[in-house]
Design brief:
single chain; mainly alpha; 4 strands; 4% strand; globular
Length: 512
């Protein structure tokens, strides 16, 4: 995640605010034709980039590769969470539902890499559909299109996170789903039960997924103005989250999904520590959204829901300040905040005047800038599509030539994207004893590659490794600045594996 555009977003809000405040006025952006056109183009750009990304044969980020790898490996009857000292080093800290959901899609049989990205793209389409629904029937179609475009700017500001196969796209959809359920006018408890199920799925996707649902639950009481005592309301809230906790345990009933091992990996991650710099950064990113919710007049009717949004954003900021985290942990809450801001601005324009109008105008302009400038990352990714096609073609030919178990290994950081095709190798009988993202977490937690893994290397458990061609095999460095593979690993590999042939991009090594 590139942080610079996000800092610019927060700073640009205040820069634009002081500019308009000094002038004494701000334009009504809803009436600006050019702003409407740009926002609509942003919505189309989000959909087009999401579709193109789904069709490409690679990934933007190594964590997406890990999710696809583990999901595919689980479908081959391997455990989701290995023992801490297992020879296979691939377990990461996401909850089981993320791998199970992606794994079932990857089992259907079409191109593995595209299959691994299908759920993410469907999550984007579903989320945008729910945003349209939540903007409500009272808004004019043109206003709803503009609102959807503004929400798309939020998504664009986080590159591909709204359609990624990681937890983020799932959590966005589940939180929006909870607010959609609250639109059902029914005395039945079924909507609340379904919300509990969504809380369970979210917690089974990311361990802190439940924190994103507090605003939806509080909004339920304020929206319906329930005449119940505070004690009864508290009991209902606790009941909803307790039932959600029960739902979150259901994936562990499936084979090869160990709760004990999952807990052990989570405990090892506690050694990562918290970053005050990341926490301050996350909070600074929250503030414009909180102020937008305040200045649009939302607190006039939903005071407690506003407080719950603040609390949830604060909690998400804490979880997002684990070393390696970031503001993307806030994303599931930003879409519903934007929906409320847009609804209030269009339905009650008389509330938006003076300082409120100046701030909201500044906020929307900052969103536009942030959303557009962040797409530089995606554009650079799309430029590499011809290379991606050539690389995956080479790997397919090598797999056809060398039958039997093989694994796609790693070079140095300049070639890390060359190893992003491992899900395809796994789908065709490949092995997975070392995985980039998992080794990063393990290394930062102080867990070195165990003797069992070295034994597997010496005993030719993986007969063939395909490595990026170059002078520096196994020299990759983690985002924490630590070597993923020790000198001992490189020596053992060099002793036991000899190069057979090299293609334009890869070298094949065979165990002797």
């Amino acid at each position: 995640m590139h942080l610079a555009p996000l800092f610019l977003n927060t700073g640009l809000v205040w820069l634009a605010f002081f500019f308009f405040y000094k002038r004494g006025q701000a334009p009504t952006l809803a009436k600006q034709k050019y702003f409407f056109i740009v926002v609509c183009l942003s919505l189309n750009f989000l959909l087009v980039t999401g579709l193109i990304y789904f069709l490409t044969p690679s990934y933007l980020n190594y964590i997406e590769v890990a999710v696809a790898d583990i999901s595919e490996y689980w479908t081959k009857n391997h455990p989701l969470y290995t023992e801490v000292l297992s020879q296979d080093r691939y377990s990461i800290l996401y909850g089981p539902w993320l791998f199970i959901a992606n794994g079932f899609i990857q089992m259907v049989g079409f191109a593995t890499i595209q299959a691994s990205k299908l759920f993410g793209f469907l999550n984007l389409l579903t989320s945008l559909g729910m945003c349209w629904f939540l903007l409500g029937p009272k808004l004019k179609p043109k206003d709803k299109v503009m609102g959807l475009g503004l929400i798309s700017l939020v998504f664009l500001g986080f590159n591909n996170f709204s359609y990624v196969n990681r937890a983020d796209s799932f959590l966005i959809a589940y939180v929006l789903g909870a607010f959609c359920l609250l639109e059902i006018d029914s005395p039945s408890p079924l909507p609340l039960i379904f919300i509990s199920a969504l809380i369970g799925l979210s917690t089974a996707t990311k361990i802190h997924g439940f924190v994103y649902f507090l605003p939806a639950v509080i909004f339920y009481f304020e929206k319906n103005q329930k005449n119940i005592s505070s004690l009864s309301a508290l009991g209902t809230v606790l009941g909803i989250f307790t039932l959600g906790a029960a739902f979150s345990l259901l994936p562990f009933l499936l084979p090869s999904v160990s709760f004990e091992n999952y807990f052990l990996w989570l405990r090892s991650a506690s050694k990562h520590g918290l970053s005050f710099k990341l926490f301050a950064y996350n909070l600074s990113y929250c503030i414009p959204y909180i102020l937008a919710l305040y200045f649009c007049g939302f607190t006039h009717r939903y005071k407690f829901t506003f407080v719950s949004f603040c609390l949830s954003l604060f909690a998400a900021s804490i979880f997002g300040c684990l070393v390696g985290g970031g503001a993307y942990h806030l994303l599931p809450l930003l879409a519903p905040i934007m929906i409320f801001v847009i609804r209030e601005c269009f339905l009650f324009p008389e509330k938006v005047n003076g300082v409120s109008r100046v701030f909201l105008t500044s906020f929307f302009i900052a969103l536009l800038y942030d959303g557009l400038i962040s797409q530089k990352v995606m554009i650079n990714y799309f430029r590499e599509i011809p290379v991606q096609i050539e690389q995956v073609s080479e790997i397919k030919k090598l797999q056809e030539k060398y039958q039997g178990p093989m694994e796609l290994g790693y070079g140095d950081n300049s070639q890390i994207e060359w190893s992003y095709y491992s899900p395809y190798v796994l789908a065709h009988g490949g092995s997975l004893i070392v995985e980039n993202s998992a080794l990063m977490d393990m290394g930062y937690s102080g867990l070195e590659i165990p003797q069992k893994t070295f034994d597997a290397l010496e005993n030719c458990l993986v007969p063939i490794f395909i490595l990026p061609r170059g002078e520096n095999p196994w020299r990759a460095v983690s985002g924490f600045g630590l070597r993923l593979f020790s000198e001992r690993w490189i020596k053992v590999f060099s002793k036991n594996y000899k190069p057979l042939e090299s293609t334009h991009y890869y070298t094949v090594y065979k165990c002797q």
